[in-house]
Amino acid sequence: MKDGVVRGVGLGQAIITVEATNGMKEYAAVAVTKKAPVTLSNWRYKIDSACGVEWHFNVKNNTNKTIHYVNFRWATMNAVGDPIQCEIQRSTGYSLRYTGPLNAYSTDYNLVNTTRFYNCSYDHSYITRMEVEFADGTLKPLIQQILIITMTTLIKKREFQIISLT
After folding, report:
1. Chain segment 72-95, per-residue pLDDT in tens
2. Judging by DSSP bridges, how do beta strands 117-118 and 124-134 pair with one another?
3. What is the DSSP letter of 113?
4. Contact between residue 127 and residue 73 where contact means Cβ atoms under 8 Å apart
5. Which of 32, 36, 54, 99 could tie 8 with a disulfide, CB 3.0–4.6 Å?
6. Which residues partner with 134 through β-bridges?
7. How far is CA 27 from the centre of its chain?
8. How far apart are CA 132 and CA 12, in angstroms?
9. What are the domain boundaries of the chain?
10. By C-alpha distance, which of 33, 38, 43, 34 is closest to 66?
């Protein structure tokens, strides 16, 4: 650690221990993982007066290749963790296809789903499938980890974020 910044030197997990001059100790678990080809950030949602859920987010390309598409699928849940369905389409979960091009190492800001998911009891989601389609025709499925998207309880705007998918 230098200047309070921890830098990973290889893949793996570690426990960092900090000891104050008075002998008190604090611990933090860290994991260094391979960076995903895509990072989703500033993910937030709002529910309109007709119970339509509108998601907003940013997509960042972490590779040296142009991305044509990113395909997402997430499960939609209520506040107690039960799956819920769209009251109009009667489908559980939600699928979205981001269309680029998204150039190497660039970010597309403030994306919005155009088709709403209608259910007033929506609270959070689980990403269940994601794949990246590159301009050169290669496909990178990201199915090793299912991420939980939860709303930040301290913020009334119902915001949540995804740091990275691996």
Report:
1. 888 888 989 899 999 999 988 888
2. unpaired
3. -
4. yes
5. 32
6. 67
7. 26
8. 25
9. 38-149
10. 38
Phi, psi of 146 (to 5 degrees): -100, 120
Phi, psi of 122 (to 5 degrees): -60, 135
Burial class (CB in 10 A: 0-12, 13-18, 19+), 23: exposed
Tell me the pairing of strands 107-112 and 94-102: unpaired
Cβ proximity of 130 and 70 under 8 Å: yes
Whether the predicted model's global pTM rises above the 0.85 cut: no
> Exposed e or buried b for every residue in 119-134, given b needs 16+ CB within 10 A?
beebbbbbbeebbbbb
The verdict on domain 38-149 having CATH code 2.60.40 is yes
Task: Return d(Cα 91, Cα 95) in angstroms, integer.
Answer: 10
Question: Which pair of structure tokens corresponds to residue 130?
Answer: 């994601």
Distance of CA 31 to the CA centre of its chain: 17
User: Does the pLDDT of residue 150 top 70, yes or no?
Assistant: no
Unique residue bearing structure tokens 């155009």:
114
Average pLDDT over residues 37-56: 86
